[in-house]
Amino acid sequence: MVRLKDIALQAHVSSATVSRILNRDDSLSVTEETRERVLRIAEELGYQPSAKRRKPRGYGRDSAPLIGVVSCLSPEEERQDPYFSAIRKGVEDECFKQEIFITSSIHLGSFQEHIFHELDGVIVIGSLHDEALTSISGTFKHAVFINSTPNPARHDSVSADFYAAAQQAIEHLLSLGYERLGYIGGQEKEHTVKNGVNSKRTIEDKRLTAFLKTARPQPDHVKIGEYSMHEGYRLMEESIAGGTLPDAFFIASDSMAIGALKALQEAGLQVPRDTAIVSFNGIEEAEFASTPLTTVKVYTEEMGRTGVKLLLDRVNGRTIPLTVTLPTSLIVRQSCGS
Predict the structure, then answer these.
(1) Pick from 93, 42, 74: which is nearest to 34 by CA?
(2) Are residues 15 and 151 in the same domain?
(3) Which end of the chain offers a freer environment for a tag, N or C, measured as fewer CB atoms within 10 Å?
């Protein structure tokens, strides 16, 4: 039997990449040449995805379950956000480890119920509005939600405590003697689908809530935009233009912090001499920023892996829903001045 690993070896890509290409996942950032090479090798080897696969290690089914992945983000949003792409990587890695094929991988805006009728369950990445949640719940017997906790009396979920994690980062800055703190962040959004269009509404961002309660900042030291590197740059430029910089910033994502560092550098300001920074997410790039970032590490890949394990457990008979909150950790580097 031809395996994903056999195709991956010949195509010189990962097995997860092969899986996503074979599932026509348009959020995957690969060249057209790579995509065509994988499809050609799969055809040459006679690869045939089957609903009857070898059972995963440790699970009591005669065949492995068929799993779908639903992302609340658009392909472009997912490509730009290392946080959510890391969750997806964790899902794909665990599926490969358990020898499970991700049968369908789509984005919420293209959600169609008939696509998933044969699936044993789905993993939903992102936050859903009640309307979309009702649609998802009515379509699948088993669903696990990652990075949100809707209806814990019914569904499994995996998340991190953003409030406590942000509070730890802010208290770290206060403990270093910084008194005037600033905030740069984006907008936390909940997704739904109306008439086939993915729409969003802004919801509470626990990082901002923790900052306002713990730091009690001046209003003009709080800057909100979108979660992107470009917006981090723009909002820091806006802060610099305002005159007096805060002693330190809590920046709600590493990507925004990297953009903010560039704005400070272009203005001739040094971190942490002129202002300190603590950021959030713990992506790999944070360690290699122009000033290595002190950041809250969220174990995103483990969130994805845990989601797969919960779904398999459900498929194999567990009836009580579980809510898993993974820990975070503060990684101290040069940007905070510690």
Answers:
(1) 42
(2) yes
(3) N
d(CA 236, CA 260) in angstroms, rounded, equals 5
What is the rounded distance in angstroms from the CA atom of residue 259 to the CA atom of residue 271? 13
Q: For the domain that residue 231 is a member of, what is the CATH number?
A: 3.40.50.2300
Residues 34 and 147 occupy one common structural domain:
yes
Residues 264 and 318 in one domain: no
Joined tokens for residue 330: 């503060």
Do 175 and 154 belong together in one domain? no
Secondary structure E strands in 252-338:
276-281, 294-298, 323-326, 328-331
Half-sphere exposure of 129 (CA within 13 A, CB side): 15
CB atoms closer than 10 angstroms to residue 50 = 12
- 52-56, 118-122, 215-219, 256-260: range with lowest mean pLDDT: 52-56
Average pLDDT (216-234) is 94
* Same structural domain, 11 and 94: yes
What is the signed CA dihedral for 195, 199, 204, 208, rounded to 10 degrees?
Answer: 170
What is the reported pLDDT for 5? 77
Residue that the structure tokens 């909150």 belong to: 325
DSSP conformational letter for 141: S
In the predicted model, what is the mean pLDDT of the chain?
A: 85
**Structure tokens, 309:** 């394990």
Confidence of residue 63 (pLDDT cuts 50, 70, 90): low
